[in-house]
Amino acid sequence: MNKGGKQSNFIDRSQACLVVNGVIYSFCIGKPLVQSVTLHPAKGGMRPQARRLQAYFLKHATDWLRIRAGLQPYYVYVWENPLDGGLHSHILIHVPLQIWPDFRLAADRWVEAACASYGGYYQPGIIRISNVYGFEEYANGTSLLFDFLNRGVRGSLNYLLKGIDGNTEDILDMVRGVGIERSSVTQLTRHPNQQGMIVGKRVGCSVSLSPTRQKFPSIAFDRHRNLRMSGPEERALSLLASVGLEMATARGESQNYAGHPLRSQPLGRQPNARGVCD
Length: 278
What we know:
globular; about 10% strand; five-stranded antiparallel beta sheet; 9 strands
């Protein structure tokens, strides 16, 4: 890890907002983050090169998705360092369903190459990839969208945000919106280092999911006449709101789609009737 970087013991509110909004926005534009990747650098003797391992993985994933699927990358990540788990990172990334098997094979090759490049060694467990719950079944028509949103999207957010700072009321208010019970968050105040100290950046996202890039098309908004968004983005945000998921701000309130003047900019392909874009 970068020894000269800032130290942190928990995810603060602005970092939590980055994760929540990145996951929600990606769903709204038809690029849901449906592959969950965990990198355990220490399992390959790579702990001192942990940042390099993740950077190598994300660089090659970016190039591979661009060539293979014509996509820019969409991902968020969180670093954790619990006493009982060691330093590792969790990454949620968008990969089209039909190339999941190829992505997993390629990911193993990237990590193996990174280990060879930075003086480590590859062994099972240094990378683990799993499907976000319910998406494959929903895309194949064998499960409801609600299951994916409630247990998949919200479950992923619960997991990534387990290292939040539970000492402030605005954090407690925000995480209730993504399904984390107040009692669970309050318990973190007794264990402020539950996910360990991280030196350097604790939370991050792809450029495509940065706050300045989150631009919704099809906007029609007037505070006095209560005009709202129209099109697939409104439907997506309504579906997310039905399971308690709303975009959040660092000021303590959620960005309810009906009352937030989101910026307008044309985007690429939109989800089809089943919510799948790629």
